[in-house]
Amino acid sequence: MVVIGGGLGGLSTGCYAQMNGYRTRILEMHELPGGCCTAWDRGEFTFDCCVSWLLGSGPGNEMHRIWLELGALQGKRMRNFDVFNVVRTRDGRAVYFYSDPDRLEAHLLDLAPEDARQIRQFCDGLRKFRLALARYPFLRPVGLMGRWERWRMLASFLPYFNVIRRSISVLMSDYSARFRSPLLREAFNFVLYEKHPNFPVLPTYFQLASHAGQSAGVPEGGSLGLARSIEQRYRRLGGEITYNAKVTEILVERDTAVGVRLSDGREVRADIVVAACDGRTTMMDLLKGRYLNDTYRRLYTRTLTEPGMVFPGYLTVFLGLRRPFPAGDPCTTYLLEEEFAARLTGIRHPSINVQFRSRHYPELSPAATTVVYVSYFCDIAPWRQLSTGPEQAPRLRRGEELHTLPVGRGREYQREKRRVRDAVIGFLDGHHPGLREAVAVRDVSTPLTQVRYTGNYDGTVLGWQPFVEGGETLEEEIRRNGPGLPGLANFYLSGVWATTGGLIRAAAAGRHVVQFVCRDDGRPFTAEVDDFAPPPTLITEPVGPDDRQFGVTS
């Protein structure tokens, strides 16, 4: 089996294939594993750009089992916070979204007693949803479930049917409009860091419920450390991974995938090919538009270009500070004045998410220093207009072809990056005096940076959005026909483009695709927890104001 892409979807696919007796080789364009789940060094600082929470970091759900099978968490501390996010409005008021329903209810009632009924209803729903999480299926794809297995799964959700039905049928924008308090009407749209116009209430319940159960923490060692742990598990299972290997074509003979061709002309032959890389690249470039049924052709020639179908990319600003800033919360979404937001090129919504990242990963920066991570949903178009260079530019170094090296994008592009960076620093200095003078290292990435490193369509990190035509059509297609393409044998899709969502779904996609491969080969699927290191330990850190002002004791 050849797997295209060494992100979490590709690494997961390789691990489960090795567990089931397949000899695999992963081909990764970059020099590192992880894809979007990555980090990089700037001097003494490590800038971690991915995991702000990891669904399944704690026990009591099927997500956690997948991470343990992949060796992702063993031997690590999982750091949890008692607040999922803080939303600060333009007038300086703050809403602390505690994951614990009791604390959240007390806090919200203190802020908006006029909304007591709506607040209690939301928190009651969150309490019920916490119980439902243990039933949520991740280990086995619905497309492989028999009729009775599906009925048993659905029956297990009956006690939670009403809360799930209500939360999935109402957009958060409509739900938040029910609050009388202008503060809550606005803040509820930003619980998940950014505004997601197409999201119903359900994802907010899912994240807060996972967080409350200590199953949405962050792993010691950060995002790249997480990817490295899975890479090591893959190698212990006997897998082979080749870096700086860019696939340019999937080889097909007699309507059967038989291998791949690399950018240097080499061919790697295989019995099975799995694409765990950018979806559009796979369909339109590597396969040259062949083997697309009506559904996939519509997805990749029309739906992909429609607004809101794919998650946007991010602009990120990283700052390494020479001293600690103890008042900085782990995670805050600031709602911005329109005039200031207009200075942030490509911004989708007038808000930025600010994380004092050293609270998440103190081991990734020197003692008595701070890393700040600022991000916003960003359109790629204005950055493309400013850029004069190619989106990727392979070059030879010591006889080896490299594909993700920096490219010259021109003075206007670099000037705009500096202008956004300086605007962000000025904003932060206004909230944390002395921050500007403490800056030792700074870095800015745009959606074009994401394209350079991963090749992802328009710099997206997560691929198809759920709850809209694109994601729902894809999931229905895979439920109905599996993760392959009609008329093409021995080929499968994996990773975020074969599902919707984040890291746990990418990891689950690897498990699922190997289950389909095993079915097609007539062999039983097997998976086991990695016992190479002891189970993870969970720690929780407090955030925010004193509980006593909300009448809560712990």
Automatic annotation (TrEMBL):
One of the record's GO molecular function terms: oxidoreductase activity
Record-linked InterPro entries: Amino_oxidase, FAD/NAD-bd_sf
Residue ranges of every copy of the Amine oxidase domain listed in the record: 8-377
The organism's place on the tree of life at top rank: Bacteria
A Pfam family assignment: Amino_oxidase
PANTHER family found in the cross-reference section: PHYTOENE DESATURASE (PTHR43734:SF1)
Protein name as catalogued: Amine oxidase
